[in-house]
Amino acid sequence: MIPQRLPVWLVVPLLLLPLGALAASAWVTDEFEITLRTGPSTTNAIQMMVKSGAELEVIERDADTGYSRVRTTGGTEGWVLTRYLMPEPSAREQLRRLTQQLTSATSQGSSLNAQLGAVRSEYDAAQKKISTLESEKASIEKELAEIKRTAANVLTINEQNKDLREQVADADVRIATLEQQNRELSGQTKRYWFMSGALVLVVGIILGLWLPRIRWQRRSRYDRF
After folding, report:
1. What share of the chain is helix, strand, coil (3-state, %, to 5)?
2. Is the pLDDT of residue 20 over 50?
């Protein structure tokens, strides 16, 4: 039995199926290294491999060989192909630097936010301290007013005490004067009593001497009759 042929429209997709299954997208790696040689040719020895994005100091350029003598940041000198050198960092290096700057800016922003939070905390603490100090000030002013009032009362009391002391001193002077006058009156009274007693005594003596004479005179008159 002779096998039947398959239609062309069916055979072609079957032939292309393995090829489509193997197709996939791919990119060339951006990791690239160039050789740093001892001289400006491929025959010179390789000193080291320099990665893409590395910064080099160009010392001289050799247009004939297409090489440039450079110095690395580590101080190594050598020759590299001039066509691999660019006047500015690669896009990948620029992106890395921008990413670092962005990360640094973000970190600084976080630091600034933290500093702002700290400043706000200090501000709140300062406000609380100010409120406390204002309360203490009001209390101290109240105490000062009370002290002033008390001091005014003390001054008034001192003035009153001074007046009372002056009155007491005047009273003491008057009492001393009255006592002196009393003593003087007592002395005068004693003198009066003494003089009165002496006068009574003298009168008594006179009467004692005079009355007998009167009696004798009367008797003499009676005897005459």
Report:
1. 70, 15, 20
2. no
Tens of pLDDT, residues 51-98: 888 889 999 999 999 999 999 999 999 999 999 888 887 676 677 778
Whether 34 has a pLDDT exceeding 80, the answer reads yes
Record the pTM.
0.36
User: Is residue 56 within 8 Å of 80, Cβ to Cβ?
Assistant: yes
CATH class of 33-88: mainly beta
CB proximity list for 49: less than 8 A, separation 6 or greater? 33, 34, 35, 36
Q: How far is CA 152 from the centre of its chain?
A: 36
pLDDT-based confidence at residue 8 (cuts at 50, 70, 90): very low
Side by side, the strands of the sheet bearing 46-51 are 46-51, 33-37, 77-81, 67-72, 56-62
β strands within 131-218, DSSP E: none
**DSSP assignments along 18-50, one per residue:** HHHHH-------S--EEEEESSSSTTSPEEEEE
Specify the 3-state DSSP secondary structure of 114.
Answer: helix
Residue 161 to residue 22: CA distance in whole angstroms: 121
pLDDT at 33 over 50: yes
